[in-house]
């Protein structure tokens, strides 16, 4: 006859409770500390930007030259950058579409923006692109 001791069951049960409590707390909110603004020029297709962890990075893209096109993010590393807004259309205070990120950790990453037809097709040919290299130090 096998008798289970209550003391053998307590450590695994406690570990399970703490693991579940950790899953329920969610991700901590990143609060921006400082602002880095980048305005991409229509004639320059690449930029290098320096920032620090927790900086808010606001990128302004050129306004599409032709109607019926929109900017799309083709690549970014979510480990280093947290996207905080979608690509917002030009407004009264903005000269072109803007998108915001918060730098999470030090590192080097690249953002690629593509100008694609606004038909939401699965496969599209971009008519323009921009590469932004971010060095978070």
List keywords for this structure.
single chain, 137 residues, mainly beta, Immunoglobulin-like, four-stranded mixed β-sheet
Task: Describe what you observe in this structure.
The chain has about 140 residues and is mainly beta. It has one domain (about 35-135): Sandwich (Immunoglobulin-like), CATH 2.60.40.2020. The chain is built from 1 helix and 8 strands, in the order H-E-E-E-E-E-E-E-E. It has one helix spanning about 5-25, and strands at about 35-40, 45-50, 55-60, 70-75, 80-85, 100-105, 105-115, 130-135. It has a 4-stranded mixed β-sheet, with no helix packed on it. Strands 2-8-7-4 form a 4-stranded mixed β-sheet, with no helix packed on it. The longest helix has 20 residues, at about 5-25. The chain is globular and about 65 Å long.
> What is the number of independent domains?
1
Order of helices and strands: HEEEEEEEE
Helical element count? 1
CATH class: Mainly Beta
- Major sheet: arrangement of strands: 1-3-6-5
Architecture, CATH level 2? Sandwich
Shape: globular
> Which structural category do the helix and sheet elements fall into?
mainly beta
How would you state the average pLDDT, rounded? 83
Strand content: 35-45%
| Portion of residues within helices | 10-25%
Total beta strand runs: 8
CATH topology: Immunoglobulin-like
The N- to C-terminal Cα distance equals 63 Å
Task: Tell me the major beta sheet.
Answer: 4 strands, mixed
């Amino acid at each position: 006859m096998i008798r289970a001791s209550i003391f053998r069951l307590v450590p695994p049960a406690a570990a399970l409770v703490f693991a579940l409590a950790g899953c329920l707390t969610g991700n901590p909110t990143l609060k921006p500390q400082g602002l880095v603004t980048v305005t991409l020029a229509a004639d320059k297709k690449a930029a290098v930007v320096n920032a620090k962890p927790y900086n808010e990075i606001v990128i302004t893209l050129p306004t599409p030259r032709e109607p019926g096109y929109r900017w799309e993010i083709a690549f970014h590393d979510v480990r280093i950058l947290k996207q905080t807004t979608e690509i917002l259309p030009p407004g009264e205070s903005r000269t072109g579409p803007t998108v915001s990120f918060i730098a999470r950790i030090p590192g080097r990453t690249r953002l690629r923006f593509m100008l694609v037809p606004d038909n939401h097709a699965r496969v599209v040919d971009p008519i323009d692109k921009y590469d932004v290299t971010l060095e978070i130090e």
